[in-house]
Design brief:
By secondary structure, this protein is of the alpha+beta class. 33% of the residues lie in helices and 24% in strands. The protein has helices at 18-40, 87-96, 142-166, 183-189, 195-206, 262-271, 281-287, 301-309, 324-332, and strands spanning 2-3, 6-7, 42-44, 50-52, 69-72, 75-82, 104-112, 125-134, 179-182, 208-212, 232-244, 249-259, 294-300. It starts with a strand and ends in a 6-residue tail after the last helix. InterPro entries: aa-tRNA-synth_II, aa-tRNA-synth_II/BPL/LPL, AsnA.
């Protein structure tokens, strides 16, 4: 049964009380970030909740969402924006802080996406581990991308074991391997399905999928999904997706990719009709070849907790704002939103 973009599973049992869930959230978040940092060789760094609009550092997402913005008493005439993500800020940080080859950072990113359509997986509050790592220009390849995805999948699988040890009654078991597909492969196979239906179909078949090449036009002339033109290289990016049996659909855990070089930036800005961004400070540095070549992405903190604990709604593992009708529907189904 679907109400207000809401999937209500039959006979839902949260298995953990709210207090037990909070303890599990803390354990997953603290344990995962340590293991993830070690596996990818990343240093924990502090990050902003807001950026100056004039820097061009905020994530434009699909280009239609508007960020929460405000002005400051001590900086009149300048507009600050609550971040959508730190996709471009991280690359600038690696440059500013002097990170060397194969060094990188991760950070706790907290964002507000006020235009989000709310459902079991989506909240206006976004919490994720944003990460970025310096690579050589010759490492901007699909092989590098696949190897990094396998490293992240390994950490997620390790977390499944750790959670099972502490909360055996609650853990949601994950597939053993992750499979790689492109968006064009999915369109060729299921031309009559929507992009989301294709994701559901391949994830149900394979269990865990890295879906590659998101943002550019497919043979049909349509995009699988939107991506900002100024951070991911649309030929070298993708999403980590899991088949999520509790809700009978796919669940995205991470969006990531090898970042644009100078040529990809120019090509994608033109394709997006956003060539005016080339005059922003971040874009000028990149097009001048001054920023490091990088790979990076985000891993949803609440979504990872939701996945590992088998929760029916992201609001069970994060405190946010929800329509009263959604709160009432969830409570009636034994889904307790924080």
């Amino acid at each position: 049964m679907t109400i207000m973009h809401l999937i209500i599973p039959e006979h839902y049992d949260p298995k953990l009380s709210v207090k037990e869930t909070e303890a599990a959230i803390r354990y997953i978040r603290e344990t995962f970030q340590d293991e993830f940092g070690k596996q990818l060789g990343l240093q924990r760094m502090s990050a902003p909740m807001m950026v100056d609009k004039a820097t061009g550092l905020n994530d434009n997402l699909n280009g239609v969402e508007t960020p929460v913005s405000f002005t400051m008493k001590d900086m009149p005439g300048e507009q600050m924006e609550i971040v959508h993500s730190l996709a471009k800020w991280k690359r600038m940080a690696l440059y500013r802080y002097g990170f060397g080859m194969h060094e990188g950072l991760y950070t706790n990113m907290n964002a507000i996406r006020k235009d989000e359509d709310l459902d079991n997986f989506h909240s206006i509050y976004v919490d994720q581990w944003d990460w970025e790592k310096v690579i050589a220009k010759e490492e901007r390849t699909e092989a590098t991308l696949r190897d990094t995805v396998r490293q992240i999948f390994k950490v997620i699988k390790h977390m499944e074991d750790e959670v099972w040890y502490k909360y055996p009654q609650a853990v949601h078991h994950l597939p053993k391997d992750i499979h790689f597909h492109t968006t064009q492969e999915l369109e060729d196979r299921w031309p009559d399905l929507t992009p989301k239906e294709r994701e559901d179909a391949i994830c149900k078949e394979d269990g865990a999928v890295f879906l590659m090449q998101i943002g550019g036009l497919l043979k049909s002339g349509k995009r699988h999904d939107g991506r900002a033109p100024d951070y991911d290289d649309w030929q070298l990016n993708g999403d980590i997706l899991f088949w999520y049996e509790p809700l009978g659909c796919s669940l995205e855990i991470s969006s990531m990719g090898i970042r644009v070089d100078e040529d990809a930036m120019r090509r994608q800005l033109k394709a997006a009709g956003a060539e005016d961004r080339a005059e922003l400070p971040f874009h000028k540095l990149l097009l001048a070849g001054k920023l490091p070549y990088t790979i990076g992405g985000g891993i949803g903190q609440s979504r990872l907790c939701m996945l590992l604990l088998g929760k029916a709604h992201v609001g069970e593992v994060q405190a946010s704002v929800w329509p009263q009708a959604m709160i009432d529907q969830c409570e009636a189904a034994n889904i307790h939103l924080l």
